[in-house]
Fold each of these.
Amino acid sequence: MKKQLRVGVIGVGYLGRFHALIYSRLPNVKLVGVADLDAVRAAEVAVEVGCVAFGDPLALLGLVDAVSVVVPTSVHLDVARPYLQQGVHMLLEKPMAQDMHRASEILQLAEASGAMLQIGHLERFNAGIMELAKRIDTPRFIEAQRMGGFSERATDVDVVSDLMIHDIDIILSLVASDLSDVRAVGARVLSEHVDIANARLEFINGTVANVVASRVSDRTTRRIRVFQPRCYLSLDFVTQTLDIAAPVASEDVQRPEIRRERVAVEPVKPLDREIEAFVHCVRRRERPLVDGAVGLKALEVALRVRKCIGA
């Protein structure tokens, strides 16, 4: 029998609660406890998942082998530092930190202690994205849209850090080239931070990506389109459908026929898959799909976008 992996969750707000629920259902995983400065909230979630509640984020030190950190970005480094120093494996929610200096320190702490560090870019575990990635060869133009209504839960960060960074990370994973230029515009609408933004990412190999993120739209749109030689792919995150169009040569006509295919992707909850992958990597000592270096790169580009906007 496998040894039980002792885990904990720090920060059990809206998203952290789901982390705790998923860990509580995994085989050979013992959810030791949840910690939150809101002791009442911690107690409520602890009862729900059957573990111990703590009001101090440091209370899990020495009790766990791995931890999810689901706290505000501004305190990521402060919360992560003591755990990483003791070699505790960590799933750290995105964005990695509020600036490159703090994010780099988080990565250095993990590397120094040998702790596994995974960043919570959960869209990389979206079944549709995983299916799309298999079919991408040489993307030339990418268009990503991530738009939805306003949520009070995200008013402490701008739309680039909250939403656009998901698509930035996906695009960086699809394009095998470094960036040559970043341009962006954005505006504040309902909060003190930028609520709608558009960015153009240009890569050295000639690939161009146009990314739109909004949290002030009246309908939810989450889509990515990829154009590559002799193929067009469009993924709808909401319906989990992948549409593919490709020309097929025919001797009977001058222009090639456009053959269309719709791939129905079997839906899988990305957060479940992300946490399962984290546990797997910790057990096998394998490099996470979205490790600290990947998270750092996505943050760097997001910060360049924010700088262009003046956010």
Note: Helices lie at 14-25, 39-49, 76-85, 100-113, 127-135, 159-174, 270-284, 292-309.
Amino acid sequence: MSIGRRGFLGHAAGGLAGGTLWSPAVHSGGLLRGPSDEQSPTAFLMISDTHVLADAGDAAKLDIRSVAVTERFVDRLNELSGTEIPEASGGGRVRELRGVIHGGDCIDTGDKPRVDMQRTEWAGFEDFYGLTGRDGRLKLPLYEVHGNHDSPRGDGYAVQRIRERNRNRPGLTAVSENGLHYSWDWGPVHFVNLGIVVGEVSEPARRRRYAPLGSLQFLQEDLQKHVGSSGRPIVVTHHIDVLRYSQPLPVAAAKAEGMEWDPADVRAYYEALQGYRVAGILYGHTHGRNIFRWDGTAKAAKAGLATFNCDNSSHFGGAQQAILYFEIWPDRSIVREYGTKDGWMTAGWTPQFWEIA
């Protein structure tokens, strides 16, 4: 059975991140079925919108606010594996983590003409988060995409560095011809990282506000080659959110060119995922948590692709932030949220969870 047909089942009791839990059914007493210790899920974390910031007055240094919150945040990530999860959040323990997926906006000034700040920010990002789990403060491998604050047109310093990192990123199954998009496997699950947006289709031919850089073609070819008709679960990550740009076609050129994601590309992306077992579409950008089913339209649906919009995770300007913890089992996925209200000085599990079968 394809993941996503039986709806989200959640235990809703408020939560650190706020917002409304969308669910066709409410589940209120621990997990529906306790995971077997004889099985081992594919477990990982999703973070997003870290916005590592340099000091505008002295671009050779990081902003002290950014350093403080990021250090606390990374230390929290390092402490999570093996810790208890409260019953209100589904119970159990955090499983052995494969790594961390980053939904973009790694740094803060990649959309501005301050290359001096960008270089300092990226150096700080790599010091904090590393690449392999052995070369930075973070003790887990990191798999990032770029966002609009990294390089909206895909020609900035952060994107150059991601391309270089992909040459040394261990365990990849494929890398795009331009060196930016990539895929890998954690156990039976296939992961694809696609940058800021997914696109672009040849018609209509018009300027895209954010450059897709061939991500749609890479996705189509990668899934055909590495997943095909196997029924393997897939997880796809990009930066920009889908709902706002899931507009009925055609959309006038003047309107589409002002949008962050061309609706024609969004439609093609949705169609490219049909026929695959989508365990999750992951993205950030909005600085708010939103978990829903996507049926290709601009509203959350009762049936469709399981979609996870992660809150910002360590932004220097806010106190309330969060991440997502995923367990992908053979027959279902379980997702929990872990967050803070004081910039990671303290942290805890949001008292709700989502189970997707």
Note: The longest helix spans residues 64-79.
